[in-house]
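Hello Y.,

Per our agreement to keep a running log of every chain we model this quarter, I'm adding this entry. I've kept the format consistent with earlier entries: sequence first, then predicted structure.
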Amino acid sequence: MINILYIEDDQEIRDIVRNALLKKGYNVIHLNSGNDYQQYIDDIHIIVLDVMLPGLDGFTIGQKIKSVKKDIPIIYLTALTAIEDKIKGLENADDYMTKPFDPRELIIRIEKLLVRFEKVSEHFFRVKHLDVDLDTNQIINNETKEEVILTGIQYKILSYLLKNHNQILTKEQIYNYVWQDNYIEGDKVVNVHIKYLRERIEKDPKKPTIIETIRGLGYRIKL
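Predicted structure for the entry above:
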């Protein structure tokens, strides 16, 4: 589970960001100011930080954190748009994002920093309620915290779709990869194993949201 320390005193913005992060399966620790950040710093993977805060300002907080924890990535999320502020922020942080903003962009920036700082592997995928780590071959339901167990074939299909995410893979491509054999047109074996795989990973296998069926073409996982 990735722990995000989020320091923001604006309630409306806080709720927007917090809800977006929770939906992606992150654990969010929120503070209204930076006065108590020290007690959380050892368990944090990344920090999202406002600048204009009560008490210590965000620039000071970022500088203090980086002086003792250089391996924790920091993203400033602030209304300060002047180039001087951006330069000052980037002197002691790893990214700088201005308000107004789209939470989807913030999440992408967070994910990039987590990979860059090796907090997660580039072979780690978060798709809906699943956290899939292809390095450890582990699949965790990030809502229930339970491990999802698949058969060897089911795991091969899922990993192949993830490695080629956002691409439509034909039944022939999947068959060739998983069974290392030539596909025979009309063979239903891929369909059957996709059905069983969905029963293991989808909340509602009859209305799948993880593995899409693209009629007449094949299957896809969108991230």
